[in-house]
Amino acid sequence: MHTIILAFVASLQNFIFRLPEKGRRNILITSALPYVNNVPHLGTIVGCVLSADVYARYCRQRDYNTLYICGTDEYGTATETKALQEGLTPREVCDKYYKIHKETYDWFNISFDHFGRTTTDWQTKIAQDIFLKLVNNGYTFEEAVDQLFCHSCDKFLADRFVEGACPFCAYDDARGDQCDKCGKLLNPTDLLKPRCKICNSTPQLRSSNHIFLDLKKLEDKLQVHLHEQWSEEVNNRWSANAISISKSWLKDLKPRCLTRDLKWGTPVPLEKFRDKVFYVWFDAPIGYASITATYTDQWENWWKNPENVELVHFLGKDNVVFHAVIFPCSLIGTKDSYTLVNHISSTEFLNYEDTKFSKSRGIGIFGTDTVSTGIPCDIWRFYLCYIRPETSDAAFSWSDFVLRVNSELVNNLGNFILRGLSFTKKFFNGRVPKLLISEEDANVLAQVNYQLKEYIDSLEHSRLRDALKCVLFITKIGNLYIQSNEPWALLKGSDEQKRRAGSVIALAANVSALVSLLLRPYLPVTSDEIINQLKLYQLKDCRLPDYMVKLLPDNHEIGNLVCWIKNVFLEMVLQITPLFQSLDPETCEKFKEKFGGVRSDLNNEEKPLEKLATKTATKALSKDAGAEKKNVKKSKDLAKLTDNIEKNDKILCECVDELGNKLEELLIKFSQEQEGQLMKEKFELEKRIVSLKKELLNAEAKRGTKQYYDFTSADKLVETASAAVASAESKPSKNIATNNGVAVHNGVVEAKSAVLSKSEKPAKVSKTPAVPKETEVVDVSRLDIRVGLIIRAEKHPDADSLYVETIDVGEEKPRTVISGLVNHVPLVEFIFPIFQMQNRPVLLLCNLKPQKMRGIESQGMVLCASTPQKVEILNPPPGAVPGDRVFVTGFEVLFSEFGLAHLTRSKRAAGLWNFCSTIKCTTKNPCWKYLNYGCYCGWGGRHSPVDDIDQCCFAHDACYKRTKRLGCIIKWIGYDWLCHNHTIYCGSDNTICGDLRCECDKAAALCLSKHFLPPVKPVCTDPPPPAGVII
């Protein structure tokens, strides 16, 4: 009986307080604890709490056992400083700002499981326990430290009480623990020209004993743990910048001080150090555990359960080192079985317009400001996630805010939902019509499923911005689907057309239901509104499916019932309402002006430096005022004192202006004296540069490299690539649309063998270019160039100038490619997205030997055009899709372009790529399965066939050659055909050449169907043939 009662109590507690469950995915999510010393700004919100909230909501939708913990970081110098500024006690400051933080996050709909604070008994108990175990296990040591001591304040100054110039970037207002400008971690003694933040006096060095954590002793265990998490075998989901920052710290781990000379903090539990407290960045991360303990006394089930719990941190990049190095080392050093970090999702910095957010200086939009604008919280959540700085710094821009909301939310997403549901109400009395899936509908569903898969993958890897764009892409697909089918027109036609119209509207309504699920992590209020209008309330607790399913039953009623007064009677009508309202640019421009200055709504008190300045001015005036100082409290004397301050201020301004004018005159005089000498040196340097470029041109020409050079001097030198190319350019092919030196026809892309930048043209072209010798002939057809799409791009974790791109080239899996384009092409471009790396079509050289670059294997090369001035990525022309093969005019070959020899996967199954479809029809295998097969297929028809499948490739190539001899230009021929019972039937209306090509493809597909495709493709071991030889 006792056992039954205990089991019942345990299950009841698990129901009330969420605890880990065996056999289920348990995820413990934390958001970096915001400082309690100010109102959170948008950078804090998106970088930590909002990002973690989106991920937590997604995890709950996937039915993961999820606990989301956060709270205010209340100990440390930041709180003491704020208390001094506001004339409050530290406890009063914590209480005041905890309430502001809580109200702000509630307004933003942040779904914490528990939002606590660090000033609790649990915090003291757990932090002291971890510290004592570190001491007893020999991971700490004592050492005297030179600290800054302020004689005016009679106290040691902790890092946040000191400001000065940064030794790395010379920023004047760097803090004693970190520079806001360059992000470097500092000690107060590192600062140049340090000053006390309380009284503005210059502090002096004085020695004080402190306790250090010996990170070197814990390095090996930390390295093992982190490399396990970064391994692809455990599905690494760390942000690239988190890995990069962690690795840089692991290269040179140094002891870290754990104690501070402060009053406000967790006390050190050693008698010798009873007047000291813990350093906030040792103490603060322990707050995650103590806040969990205030949520449930069974907190150890989450924090001492590494086998069953995944720990995920969301934070800004400036906090990575504390969560990836210091906090894990502190837990490892206890020798207890603590849950260590599994994943870190860190963001870059979010700026405000052209400046930086700063909690201490009050620059930018703060949480309380968003409420006063009257703009709904879902709009803020949308835009912050849309610009989330995942791979590079981003900026909140009012103009972009208006643009994105009005175009993406109102005109795209909101418009799709409104059309789908309002058509149902208008044409079918609010009842969802019967859904009949056509071939076109199946294609639309395939696109939606692809985006759904990308959405899930992006959120699993904490790429919140990419996942949101998948949702927007689905609604774009939906809008195009409705527009292309025009159900309003079909409803005026035959019964069959009316059924088709109903099916279109039913599919749009079902996609709307799916969108409501996908929006729940991002826009919870909007999601609820869609669900309410659909009258499908069970979706609020529905598990997110892996693929598109029918969510709305046939004849399901939608719409909100609204009471209207009509002819004195109450009438119930169905109503579909718009989800969003457009933002007014003029109103937002006023907001931009309003929030562009320094905040003063919460703190009208003078800052310490301002107080000191006022105090100094008063003393100076008192010398002149004489006896007036004794009666300063009288209103008459105060008025005189104010007048004197204004007069002195005016005199001071005049002196500053005069000094500035004199300085400007001196600078002008100095510049005039130097200008002649500088111009002379510039002229000599330009001459030298031109000379060196000519030498470089000659050296490259001797090595066989032919490129265009556009010299800035009058003597411009340009050399052509070859006589054949010059001839081809002078007589362009007919019916070929060109774009930046690249041409496409019927899905096949052509690239000219010499490419100039878009804005650069050769000044001179030799009329009689030298023809290369026979031994120098280059077989350009050996280059396997394909159209690709950059799915994802991010900075290399170990190289500042390299990008790591994931590129879809129509193969079974995308390729990883490294490109040195960081200094030439932006990762994300908000104004002109076509010039960014993300989601960009490119030309990729695919048959290069894979090469490791800084530890990551590169499987190709992105092709660019360059001049000495700039580098630009080559753009495929409109209509080209990933997998389309690129060839060079004048170097065409037959089978290596269009047959199995260089067959690539294509998203189209018509026109030039009918051959792929014939293979699928006859063999049931997709054509890409024969890619790189054997010697003949795998080498583009350059070797002898190794087996029967290779013989099929050989026979197909021979068939094409025979067709060409009859006068047919194979690459431009399309034909009609039919697949029935895995048999190909060529159309009766084909041209003679179309019939011939159909028969070639049919014979090759039939040949392949007779032979078993082995799971492991035979690898060609023959050496490559001499250049220019085609078998």
Largest sheet: 9 strands, mixed
Low-confidence stretches: 565-572, 598-636, 708-777, 890-912, 1025-1031
Tally of helical segments: 27
The overall strand count is 34
What is the share of helical residues?
Answer: 40-55%
Head-to-tail CA distance between termini: 86 Å
Overall structural class, as computed from helix and strand content, comes to: alpha+beta
Mean pLDDT: 78
Task: Provide the β-strand percentage band.
Answer: 15-25%
| Oligomeric description of these chains | single chain
- Rg for CA atoms: 35 Å
Could you say which overall geometry the principal axes of the C-alpha atoms support? globular
Domain TRNA-binding: 779-887
Protein name: Methionine--tRNA ligase, cytoplasmic
EC number: 6.1.1.10
Pfam family, one: Phospholip_A2_1
Please render the helix and strand layout as text.
Layout lengths: L1 H15 L9 E6 L10 H20 L3 E8 L4 H10 L3 H18 L6 E4 L3 H16 L3 E11 L4 E2 L5 E4 L8 E2 L16 E5 L7 E10 L1 H16 L9 H11 L5 E2 L1 E2 L16 E2 L1 H4 L2 H10 L4 H4 L5 E8 L3 H13 L8 E7 L2 E3 L2 E2 L10 H7 L3 H10 L7 E3 L1 H31 L10 H22 L3 H22 L1 H4 L4 H25 L4 H11 L25 E7 L2 E7 L9 H10 L13 H18 L9 H68 L20 H8 L6 E3 L2 E4 L2 E4 L33 E11 L7 E6 L6 E5 L21 E5 L5 E3 L2 E3 L2 E2 L1 E3 L4 E3 L11 E4 L6 H4 L15 H10 L24 H18 L11 E4 L2 E4 L5 H18 L22
Parallel strand pairs: 1-2, 1-13, 2-3, 13-14, 15-17, 22-32
Antiparallel strand pairs: 4-5, 4-9, 6-7, 6-8, 9-10, 11-12, 15-16, 18-19, 20-21, 21-22, 23-24, 23-26, 23-32, 24-25, 26-29, 27-28, 30-31, 33-34
InterPro entries: aa-tRNA-synth_I_CS, Anticodon_Met, Met-tRNA_ligase_1, Met-tRNA_synth, Methionyl/Leucyl_tRNA_Synth, MetRS_core, MetRS_Zn, NA-bd_OB-fold
Subcellular location: Cytoplasm; Secreted
EC number: 6.1.1.10
